[in-house]
UniProtKB/TrEMBL annotation:
It comes from the Bacteria. Its EC number is 2.7.1.26, 2.7.7.2. It holds the Pfam family FAD_syn. Belongs to the ribF family. GO terms for biological process: FAD biosynthetic process; FMN biosynthetic process; riboflavin biosynthetic process. InterPro entries: FAD_synthase, Riboflavin_kinase, Riboflavin_kinase_bac, Riboflavin_kinase_bac/euk, Riboflavin_kinase_dom_sf, Rossmann-like_a/b/a_fold. Pathway: Cofactor biosynthesis; FMN biosynthesis; FMN from riboflavin (ATP route): step 1/1; Cofactor biosynthesis; FAD biosynthesis; FAD from FMN: step 1/1. It comes from Parolsenella catena. Keywords: ATP-binding, FAD, Flavoprotein, FMN, Kinase, Multifunctional enzyme, Nucleotide-binding, Nucleotidyltransferase, Transferase. This is Riboflavin biosynthesis protein. GO terms for molecular function: ATP binding; FMN adenylyltransferase activity; riboflavin kinase activity. Residues 228-354 form the Riboflavin kinase domain. The gene is ribF.
Length: 359
C-alpha cells in the first residue's frame, strides 16, 4: 500500500483515503527518503551506490540503462525493470547512467521551467526501482561533441564495465545524435557488450516521453501527467512573505518561491498535497500571480492555502504535489467574489483530500 500511486479516474466519485494520500506522498518522494551520499569519481561524475554493489570502484560487470530519465515516467520504469531483471538473472550489477543537466535542455539553449525532477529526486526515484546504482554524468558541450564510439569505449566501458546496455528504440547519443541503437551495436559488439533497444511504452498510440509529460503539466492536465509518471508531479520551494492580505480574506496562504528551472503547471487552481518534510496537508493552490491585484500572466508564482494548518511556514522548504486541476485563474470584480470562490476551492479540497494533516 505505502508508496503506491493509484489514479482515481476522472470522476472523483469518492474522497481519497488516508492510506491513498500517504501512498501518493511516498510514491512522489515528497517525504524525505534517505539517499546515500553521491561519491565523486575521477572523471567528474557522481555515483550513488544504493546497494553497496559498486564497492570501492566501478569495476564489476554491469547491466546499464542510459538516458536523462527526467520524471522517471512509465517508459523509463519499463526500461529499468528490464535491466534490473537481467542483472538479477545473471548476477550482475544494475546501474542507470544519467546526465545532468538533461542533454536536451543544454542543447536547446536556456529553457526555464522545464525540469520534472531535480537530479537528487531523480536518483531517489530510480533507487526505488531496484537498481544497484545511479551514475550522474555532467553533460557539457564537450561531452555533447564526443562521438558515441568514444563515449562507449573510453567513457562508459572504463567507468561502469557494461556487458549489456538497455535503451529505448528511439535512443540516440554522441555527437550529432549518431549513436542510434544500430550504431551502438556496431561499436559494442566487438567489446562483448549487448545492446537492447526496447519498443517504446505508448499510450493511445503516442510514445510516452518526458516531453509529453511536460506538455500535459504545462496544459494543467496534472492527472494525465500523474498517470504517466506513476505519481503526482511535485515541485519544491521556500515560503516567502506575501502581501499578507490572504489572512484577512479568511484563507491564509503560503507564498512559495519555486526552484528555478522546475516545470510549473499551467496557471490556475489545483488541489494539492503540501509537505514540509515531516508533515503534510491538503491544500488549494493558486499558480500564477493573483490577477485581481494586478498580477500579470506568466509571472512565476505559487501560493497554497493549507487545510488544517495554522502557524508560520516562513523560510520553510516545502514540496507541492499536484493532485487535481480545479479551475482557470480569474480576475474578480470584488473581494467578496474572490473570497467565496477560493473558499469553494478549499471546500473541494477538504471533501476529497481530507480535513487536515495527512501525516
Ligand atoms: C486556492 C486559491 C485560488 C486563488 N485564485 C485566484 C484567482 O483566480 N484570481 C486572483 O486574482 N487571485 C486568486 N487567488 C489569490 C488571492 O487573491 C490571494 O491569495 C490574495 O490576494 C492574498 O494574497 P497575499 O497572501 O499575498 O496577501 C487565489 C488564492 C488561492 C489560495
Ligand atoms: N516510452 C518509452 N519506453 C521505453 N523507453 C523509453 C521511453 N521513453 C524513453 N525511453 C528510454 O529511456 C531512456 C531515457 O530517455 P530520455 O531521458 O531521453 O527520455 P524521454 O522521455 O524520451 O525524454 P525527452 O522527451 O526529454 O526526450 C532512453 O534510453 C530512452 O530511449
Amino acid at each position: 500500500m505505502m508508496g503506491e500511486y493509484r489514479p482515481l479516474g476522472p470522476s472523483w466519485e469518492r474522497p481519497l483515503t488516508s492510506d491513498e494520500l500517504r501512498g501518493r506522498l511516498v510514491a512522489g518522494v515528497a517525504l524525505p527518503q534517505p539517499l546515500v551520499p553521491a561519491r565523486k569519481l575521477g572523471n567528474g561524475s557522481e555515483l550513488y551506490d544504493f546497494s553497496g554493489a559498486m564497492g570501492c570502484g566501478c569495476g564489476r560487470p554491469s547491466v546499464c540503462v542510459l538516458g536523462a530519465f527526467d520524471g522517471v515516467h512509465v517508459g523509463h520504469r519499463a526500461l529499468v525493470r528490464a535491466a534490473v531483471d537481467e542483472a538479477r538473472e545473471r548476477g550482475l550489477v544494475s546501474i542507470a547512467v544519467t546526465f545532468s543537466p538533461d542533454p536536451a535542455a543544454l542543447l536547446a539553449g536556456p529553457i526555464v521551467n522545464d525540469t520534472l525532477l531535480a537530479v537528487e529526486d531523480r536518483a531517489r526515484m530510480l533507487s526505488r526501482l531496484g537498481l544497484d546504482a545511479v551514475l550522474v554524468v555532467p553533460f557539457t558541450r564537450e561531452l555533447a561533441a564526443t562521438s558515441h564510439e568514444t563515449f562507449l569505449r573510453e567513457w562508459l566501458a572504463a567507468s561502469v564495465s557494461p556487458v549489456s546496455i538497455h535503451v529505448g528504440a528511439d535512443f540516440r547519443m554522441g555527437a550529432g545524435g549518431a549513436g542510434t541503437v544500430a550504431a551502438l551495436r556496431v561499436v559494442a559488439g566487438p567489446l562483448g557488450i549487448d545492446v537492447h533497444g526496447h519498443e517504446l511504452v505508448s499510450e493511445h498510440g503516442r510514445a510516452v516521453s518526458a516531453t509529453l509529460v511536460r506538455r500535459l503539466i504545462r496544459d494543467g492536465q496534472v492527472e494525465d501527467a500523474a498517470r504517466l509518471l506513476c505519481r503526482d508531479h511535485m515541485v519544491r520551494g521556500v515560503v516567502e512573505h506575501g502581501r499578507g492580505e490572504g489572512a484577512s480574506f479568511g484563507f491564509p496562504t503560503a507564498n512559495v518561491r519555486i526552484d528555478a528551472s522546475v516545470c510549473l503547471p499551467a496557471e490556475g487552481v489545483y488541489a494539492a498535497l503540501v509537505c514540509d518534510g515531516s508533515h503534510a496537508w491538503p491544500a488549494a493552490v493558486n499558480v500564477g500571480a493573483p490577477r485581481s491585484f494586478g498580477g500579470a500572466a506568466g509571472e512565476p508564482f505559487l501560493e497554497a492555502s493549507l487545510v488544517g494548518f495554522s502557524g508560520d511556514l516562513y523560510g520553510r522548504r516545502l514540496s507541492v504535489s499536484f493532485v487535481a486541476w480545479l479551475r482557470e485563474p480569474r480576475t474578480f470584480a470584488s473581494v467578496e467574489e474572490l473570497e467565496a470562490t477560493v473558499l469553494g476551492n478549499v471546500a473541494w479540497v477538504r471533501k476529497y483530500l481530507g480535513e487536515g494533516e495527512v501525516l
